[in-house]
Amino acid sequence: MLTVSEPEDAKAPQRLLKKLGDASDPDARWQSALEIYAEVLFEKARRLEKARLTYNKGIALFRGGEIEKARDEFSKALSLNPELTEAANSLAYTLAVLGEGLEEAEKMIRRVLAKSRANRALYLDTLGLVLHKQGRNEEARQVLGEAAKRCSKGDEKLLAEIYYHLGISSAPGSDSRRQALLRAIEFDPDGQWGRRAAALLEGRR
Fold first, then answer.
1. Other CB atoms within 10 Å distance of the CB of residue 66
2. Is 71 within 8 Å of 91 (Cβ atoms)?
3. What's the whole-model pTM score?
4. Could you give the CA distance from residue 92 to residue 188 in angstroms, rounded to a whole number?
5. What pLDDT was estimated at residue 48?
């Protein structure tokens, strides 16, 4: 997980707030304390909202095919809010797509999996892709198989993506590759994962 480096002076407002809000302090100034608390809370909320908007911008760039720019936005979002697990997952996924920073991408997505109980199938899919890009295909298939088991009923798009990644992690010409790609087509016949799987089966990719 990325962390924000704060200057030493960043602790000064906290000391001031403690002084102003301490009921045992005869110099406590409650109105000033309330104003500063409101300002600090507003700034924190604005920072978190900016992180969310930056993350959403990255998603739009990724979907538009501007992968490097998407990577940069996900990284910015994480610097604004290191706890934004969606941004960490998306950055790890994007690094895998670009084939760069794969060791860091693996560490990143494993940290997400260690701390989050939600979206397990989605995050396992990302880990599986990262492992595949490192050439660790046996590990990738194990992780992707677990991702498929954890996928929610009715989440056909994610299942198609998982099976596509299972397909590309299997040996060319193998029956397991063919079966995984057929499942991708089954779950997403008219979408990108079905089309990509079909292209692989037909030898167009």
1. 14
2. yes
3. 0.78
4. 24
5. 84
